[in-house]
């Protein structure tokens, strides 16, 4: 089981930026970001596989690029032009499933989460 530790959350005004990081204890096929707002289901935000292929939710395309540093086993989420609707707990996740860029549901290893709050 891979251990995942997020960092970088915080509070920011609308239009601002934050960068999330996720340190993994081991290499995995695929890593991703999910978020859960109060009263809502957890949703996939972005994912990246070991070949550098990515997937982004429509709501964040063009605003939240994801990247990874394989040497550091670290995943990043650069969040730009943040909106109040982006307020949520953000979770790092990992998967060994080869369909990880097609199916959010195959992610089965989770970090503890980091809070992002965007005020208007």
How would you describe this protein?
The chain is mainly β. It contains no helices and eleven strands. Strand 7 (66-69) and strand 8 form a beta hairpin. The radius of gyration is 13 Å and the shape is globular. The protein starts with a strand and ends with a strand. The model has no long low-confidence stretch (mean pLDDT 97).
Q: Tags for this entry?
A:
mainly beta, 120 residues
Order of helices and strands: EEEEEEEEEEE
Helix count equals 0
Based on secondary structure, the structural category is mainly beta
Q: What low-confidence regions span 5 or more consecutive residues with pLDDT below 50? A: none
Mean pLDDT: 97
Reported for the largest beta sheet, the result is: 7 strands, mixed
SSE diagram, text form:
Layout (H helix, E strand, L loop, with lengths): L3 E4 L2 E4 L4 E7 L5 E7 L6 E7 L4 E3 L9 E4 L4 E6 L8 E8 L13 E2 L3 E6 L1
Parallel strand pairs: 2-11
Antiparallel strand pairs: 1-3, 3-8, 4-5, 4-9, 5-6, 7-8, 9-10, 9-11
Task: Characterize this entry briefly.
With 120 residues, the protein is mainly β. The protein has strands at 4-7, 10-13, 18-24, 30-36, 43-49, 54-56, 66-69, 74-79, 88-95, 109-110, 114-119.
């Amino acid at each position: 089981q891979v251990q995942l530790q997020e960092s970088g959350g915080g509070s920011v005004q609308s239009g601002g930026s934050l960068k999330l990081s996720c340190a993994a204890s081991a290499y995995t096929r695929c890593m991703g970001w999910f978020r859960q707002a109060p009263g809502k289901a957890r949703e996939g935000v972005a994912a990246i596989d070991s070949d550098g292929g990515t997937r982004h939710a429509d709501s964040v395309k063009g605003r939240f690029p994801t990247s990874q540093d394989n040497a550091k086993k670290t995943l990043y989420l650069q969040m730009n032009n943040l909106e109040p609707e982006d307020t949520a707990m953000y979770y790092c996740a990992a998967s060994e499933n080869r369909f990880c860029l097609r199916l959010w549901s195959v992610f089965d290893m989770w970090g503890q989460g980091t809070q992002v709050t965007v005020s208007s």
